[in-house]
What we know:
Blueprint: H1 3-12, H2 25-33, E1 39-43, H3 49-55, E2 61-66, H4 69-77, E3 87-92, E4 106-112, H5 123-133, E5 134-145, H6 160-167, E6 171-177, E7 190-197
Parallel strand pairs: 1-2, 1-4, 2-3, 4-5
Antiparallel strand pairs: 5-7, 6-7
The structure holds S-adenosylmethionine (SAM).
Residues 7, 18-19, 43-46, 65-68, 71, 94-96, 112-114, 117-118 line the site of S-adenosylmethionine (SAM).
Amino acid sequence: MNPDLEWQRRYEAEDTPWDKGAAAPPLLAYLRRAPIMGRILVPGCGRGHDARALVAQPGVDVVGLDISPTAIQQARQLPSVPGNGSQIIFAAGDFFDLPASSAGAYDWLVEHTCFCAIDPAQRPAYARAAALALKPGGHIFAIFYLDPGYESGPPFRVSRDELSALFAPSFDLLEEWVPRESFPGREGRELVRILKKR
Length: 198
Ligand SMILES: C[S@@+](CC[C@H](N)C(=O)[O-])C[C@H]1O[C@@H](n2cnc3c(N)ncnc32)[C@H](O)[C@@H]1O
């Protein structure tokens, strides 16, 4: 089956074991010590838990994007509590085919379980789409899945070396750490990286 239709089928069937009903613990931990500001894109947002955590900050403009119209419909139905002056939009669309209006439009991109879900052959296209969407000097906050614990995916594993090679053409690595707070079963298997577009 076309992978895009397969995501839609999984949401229609409510067969979404990746959805823990809450924002990613490493993202929440980061937001307790530093803000993620400005215009923020969350590709592969699913039902939007990470996007809603981001819009709780003041003065931000969050766009949650997903290829599955059902995921987006469900994301819109869940309550958001925007911070002062903040707003959130959920849009159905393909991260690999962003509209021209998205080019250079974002200050931050927040990655969580989209990169690991796509076919690894699409990873260079992911890095190019991220570079396209961000302003010069814009940042990626990414939670990558180093080791899902099994060989075939999704989620697909990735190494630090592969990540460095993929993002090096447009991004500098500012910080990385293995998060101490993760969803049960993901402890020690994730890697947070903050990247800055040149
Ligand atoms: C494993 S799920 C994770 C969803 C969400 N981040 C979460 O943690 O609940 C991967 C998501 O990426 C979306 N997706 C896959 N390919 C995409 C694409 N090309 N553009 C936008 N979203 C995509 C899927 O529909 C799915 O919602």
